[in-house]
Amino acid sequence: MAVPRNALRKWEKVRDWALRLPGATEEHPWGDTVAKVDKKVFVFLGGGGDGGHPVAVTVKLTDETAHAHALACPGAEPAGYGLGRAGWVRVPLEPAGAPAAELLCDWVEESYRTVATKRRVGELDARTAQVETR
After folding, report:
1. Residue 132 falls within a domain, yes or no?
2. Whole-angstrom Cα distance, residue 99 to residue 108?
3. Is the keyword Coiled coil assigned to this protein (predicted)?
4. Does residue 133 fall inside a structural domain?
5. Which residues contact 90 (CB under 8 A, 6 or more apart)?
6. How many domains is the chain built from?
7. Domain limits for position 22
C-alpha cells in the first residue's frame, strides 16, 4: 500500500526539523527512525514510506493542552509499550484531518525540550533568539 504523498512530505519535514535541533542524531532501532539528543529519544518517526508501518510521529507531550490536542487528532493514541503513561502520543499522518507539519514540528520541539538537558535547551533558545533578532 502506497503512502499518500502529503503524509510522506509531512514525515520528511518533521524528520528534517528534528535533526536540525541541537545535538540531534538519527538512529534506526527496531526498524523505525528515531531522533535522539544525547542518546535519549525525543521523537519516533514510524513508517517513513517503506510501506512496512503506517506513517506516524510519536512525541512526548507534557503540556496538558498540547497532549489533549494531539490525542484529539484522527487515529491518535497513547504510545504503546507503556510509553503512553509517560505522556508519549502516537499521531498518524495519513488520515484526513491529520495535523499540519508545522504543528507536528511544534510538538517535536516540545518533546525535545522535555527530553534534552538544560544545556541543549539553552542552545536551542540561543539559536531561536539569534534568528528573532535578525
Report:
1. no
2. 13
3. no
4. no
5. 44, 46, 56, 57, 58, 76, 77, 78, 79, 80
6. 1
7. 5-126
